[in-house]
Design brief:
This protein has 243 residues and is an alpha/beta fold. The protein has one domain: Rossmann fold. The protein is 44% helix and 16% strand. It contains ten helices and eight strands. Helix 9 links the parallel strand 7 and strand 8. Helix 2 packs across helix 3 and helix 4 crosses helix 6. It starts with a helix and ends with a helix. The protein binds zinc ion.
């Protein structure tokens, strides 16, 4: 079975796709690009106003959109239904939003994707964070250090775990990878992941890099479950002002 799946995925499907336009992975209608026009619009509706949301902190986090509706379905289709091609437009859009933001910095920066455990990556056939980082780099012209980090611990899905459990799960999950290990880079690192939830995973990665003397200047992700900041307090202060 495995060999048939391999032949289909790696040889026949790409070969057939030269002749047949692949369907939209979200609605199965024919599409000229990765998504059909309708679904592309729907995914864009999940983008944060202003091109993306910045979550400030010691290391600022830039996120393209809210993890909901069509963006959530697009990420699921990419990861779980074998549609790595979806990473391409998502990475481009992430780059466009980030370049227009106040946290963009192109000076002496390299891009490091959050790695998957080798076994998991073999099963999936790709690491979506690496594919996102790759198309992000095509737009920004930044260099990627594919193996800037390595995942040494296979972690379970963090979904549904408490904060404490998450921290415990991702503790010691990473080491500095071979691309950054032997020679401490003069460049700082931008981390790229697909989904940002509590930040437990990226914080664990940041800690490992910082311990290795490597500066991390930002985190980028295509989607977050976190709500954009600032909305509630703004309403409150408005109310106070009116009173
Ligand atoms: Zn569609």
């Amino acid at each position: 079975m495995k060999i048939i799946k391999f032949i289909w995925k790696k040889i026949l499907k790409p070969f057939l796709n030269i002749f047949l336009k692949p369907n939209c992975p979200l609605c199965q209608r024919s599409a000229d690009r990765e998504f059909c026009q309708y679904c592309e619009k729907q995914v864009w509706r999940c983008q944060f106003p202003g091109g993306g949301e910045i979550f400030p902190g010691e290391v600022p986090v830039f996120i393209w959109g809210q993890y909901k509706d069509s963006l959530k379905r697009a990420i699921a289709a990419m990861k779980y239904k074998d549609n790595p091609q979806i990473a391409k437009p998502l990475g481009y859009w992430l780059a466009d939003g980030w370049l227009a933001s106040s946290v963009a910095t192109l000076d002496k920066v390299v891009v490091v994707p959050i790695p998957m455990h080798k076994k998991k990556e073999r099963e999936r056939g790709f690491n979506q964070a690496e594919l996102l980082a790759n198309s992000f780099c095509e737009v920004t012209g930044l260099q990627m250090r594919r193996n800037g980090l390595a995942r040494v611990k296979q972690t379970q899905a963090l979904y549904g775990l408490s904060r404490g459990e998450r921290l415990e799960t991702v503790k010691d999950a990473f080491v500095v990878g071979k691309d950054l290990r032997n020679r401490r880079p003069r460049a700082s690192v931008l981390l790229v992941d697909d989904i940002y939830t509590t930040g437990a995973t990226v914080n664990s990665a940041i800690e490992v890099l910082q311990k290795g003397g490597i500066r991390v200047v930002g985190v980028l992700a295509i989607a977050t479950t976190k709500k954009p900041r600032g909305k509630k307090p703004r309403l409150k202060s408005q109310k106070l002002f009116n009173n």
